[in-house]
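Quick question: what would this complex look like in 3D?
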Amino acid sequence: MANVRLESIKKAYGTIEILRNIDLTIDHGEFVVFVGPSGSGKSTLLRMIGGLEPISGGRLFIDHELVNDIDAADRNLGMVFQSYALYPHMTVRENLAFPLRMAKASKAEIAAKLAKIASLLQIDHLLDRKPRQLSGGQRQRVAIGRAIMREPKVFLFDEPLSNLDTELRVQMRVQIAKLHKQLGNTMIYVTHDQVEAMTMADKIVVLKDGNIEQVGSPHDLYHNPASRFVAGFIGSPKMNFLGGKVVAAHEQGLHVRLEAGSTISVPVQPDQMLVGKPVTVGIRPDDFCSPAPEQQEISIGLEVDFVEHLGSVTYIYGNVGDETVVARAPKSGSRKGAGKLTLTAAPADCHLFMSNGKAVRRLQAPATWS
Amino acid sequence: MRFNRSTPASLFLNLLIVACTLILTFPLVWIVMMSVKQQAEVMTWPPRFIFTPTFENFRVLFDAAHAGATSYGTIKVDFLTPITNSVVISLCAVLVSLVAGVPAGYVLARRDIPMKEDIAFFILGFRFAPALLVVIPLFSVFQTIGLYDTYFGMIWVYQVVTLPMIIWLSRSYIEDIPKDVEEAAAMDGAKPFRVVWHIVLPLLKPGLIGASLLIFLLAWHNFALGLILSSTKAPVTVALLKLLNPGVQFYPVMAAGLVVTMIVPVVLIILGQRHLERGLTFGAVK
């Protein structure tokens, strides 16, 4: 059972704090993605788990063992780097064999392992090439293969797909997810790409400025973001934010007057304290539906700026008051240019954030799928 | 890239190259010619370009049995010893520098140590110091502690020439090796020593071959250290000077000595041209 536990882990360079009191538990077999903008400390955190970066404070346990002062070489982890970091002077075969050679495995064992992993990753035909003779995707597969060879307790991925083109990235994403299913190991994956996080993770850890902003399943993060930051970071296109003010609280939620004019009722925890306070209403582009289908709804007037046809979906960009808003256009009908449009959304799909960025708890969170 | 130049301009540039080549090769050709002339022919004016070459001068250099008897007098030369000295001293100096300098370069490139840049600059500073500055105080020290005129002492003192260069070159080569590669090796279970042995050194090899050649040549040409700190263990550069000494000057024999001295670097440069260029520009372009 290779779980990873972080207890108030800190990282500081001199007086500059990179990570502050990170507490996190990663269970055996979990696929955890660290996601966040650049400078959020996600790579540093991964490197600290890997043993490549000294830990300034707190305790790190891998497999129930305190590893703060254990060398990277002795932690028995596998890591895939953004640059692949293949050994340029060795052939693919030698690259793959290296971890086992370091572990003083027998030649027969190395050969057997090598054959198995080469066929698993479809790199059998590349074994005698040098890394510089490989394409980006092939290098990536070799790097993954090298990390698997030693059957490490935990796999660490440091933005492994960011050097690949879009198509290959999607392929590799699927391949890594499959690999996780096959091997069942604990995997920790760092990315700044929220799509990768959403599609691959069992658990997403959103980092911002050296703090954990939220930990949860992709579904959780999407439907119940704990803060405006998470709401804006997860989901594409970004969630729309509209400024407003709470005018009243009632049983089913809060009445909010939008800066753009209309008053809407949002089904969130009705907190009397919030009455009179400025808030932000968040609505995802995909949650707008126009024309309106059912019951009680929120409607917002949109000044259309331009329309983006992506084939399967069409996004309408425009302004509500001073704020830019993106909305998914309904399937039927096609819009070309500017004009006025009324957007409607179900109140249950709205999010509400306080002025400090924290979310007000929603009353009708959508049920989990699966 | 292609540049189109006017005909007069390219003619001028070509002439410039020819002129440079002539200026550079003239002394070499002159010395080679001198080395196969007789003593009497060397002095004639105007110089003669057509003559019967003789290898007498080369024989004199190495022919201890006949004690340097020539058709135009007798000189006592023992050229084999200084050649051997130079080979031993230069080769060992480079090897010692590699053993000491590559780890030092690694530390300067990779580890965070206090005053790193100052240390690096201090080491480089030895390259700026005139050799005589080091040598004169060393003379009495060497005599006192018994290092004067020993291989050990010479190899040691040659580090002034070779070590800073090796440290600086290997530092810059190591900085060009992506850190990721070393970290990947650590993740793969390699301890720091094995990372260096299995990953860093093999990647460094082409650069180090070039650097060693370059530094061997620096050591080979050194003159001041050997002049003051040795006599029987003097390198070939010092031995050449001694050929000028005895009243009568045997210019052709000296020219032959020069040719022999030059052959070593010339052969090395030709053999190692590829590595030498690599050593000078290693890592400059990925």
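Answer marked as accepted. The interface with chain A takes residues 178, 180-181, 183-191, 194, 198-199, 202-203 of chain B (CB under 8 Å).
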